[in-house]
Amino acid sequence: MGYLEGFWVTFRQMFRPRITGQYPEEKRPKVERLHGRHVLNRYEDGMEKCIGCELCAGVCPARCIYVRGADNPPDDPVSPGERYGFVYEINYLRCIHCDLCVEACPTEAITESKLFEFSFTNRDDAIYTRAELLVGDDGRPRQLPWEDWRPGEDALTSGWMRATAPAGDHRWTGEVQWSGELGYGVRAPEPPQEAADPSEEEG
Ligand code: SF4
Ligand code: SF4
């Protein structure tokens, strides 16, 4: 009887819905807070948000960020601050996408897009420069030849920053505490989140 039971298990599986996707032809929707390839953001007026403070490089556990700040030229400033990120590099051969750099950044200059489909055939391509990381004049990530972007994916560049419940506290729901972005303005908060425990509403 053992083999008949085995056939029965196989037979039943034939009528169950398939959950295997035809990747890479089909991609599943990505969650809003997925950690992917970084972008360097700009304000709505086009100025760069990075002030070259190096906090992201200091906190990075993989030591894969290199930043060198420089004074803004008085006649043609790059950022609203005193300084800007003159050199900015991320080595994706080492990045573990922990997002600590995003958390450390005081100006929301660096965030992560949802793109994780990228691969390299040489070291130079793996080390992203400021020019490659900086969003374009439409506020969207620059799409590099070795990256697999699909329509709409380039709109998701700052989901983490738009989290409305820091540390999981739902009382922050709907609170906008971030600056506007080139091409998008002030991004909307995430949808309301339900309270796990009604008593948390107090105090
Ligand atoms: S995501 Fe983590 S490992 Fe990658 S650059 Fe940022 S801090 Fe470093
Ligand atoms: S990305 Fe943010 S933390 Fe890093 S140097 Fe620029 S302003 Fe500082």
Record the SSE blueprint:
Elements: H1 2-13, E1 38-40, H2 55-59, E2 65-71, E3 83-91, H3 100-104, E4 110-112, H4 123-126, E5 127-128, H5 130-133
Antiparallel strand pairs: 1-4, 2-3, 3-5
The structure holds iron/sulfur cluster (SF4) (2 copies).
The site of one iron/sulfur cluster has 13 residues, from helix 3.
CATH arch. level architecture: 2-Layer Sandwich
Distance between the termini: 64 Å
* Category from helices, strands and their pairing: little secondary structure
- What is the number of E strands? 5
Give the low-confidence spans: none
* Distinct compounds present: iron/sulfur cluster
Reading side by side through the largest sheet, how are the strands ordered?
2-3-5
The major beta sheet can be summarized as: 3 strands, antiparallel
SSE succession: HEHEEHEHEH
What's the average pLDDT? Answer: 88
Strand content: 5-15%
Shape: elongated
Helix percent reads 10-25%
Explain what you see.
By secondary structure, this protein is low in regular secondary structure. It has a single domain (30-187), classed as Alpha-Beta Plaits. Helices cover 15% and strands 12% of the residues. A three-stranded antiparallel β-sheet has the order 2-3-5. The model has no long low-confidence stretch (mean pLDDT 88). The structure holds iron/sulfur cluster (SF4) (2 copies). One iron/sulfur cluster is lined by residues 50-56, 67, 85, 104-105, 107, 109-110.
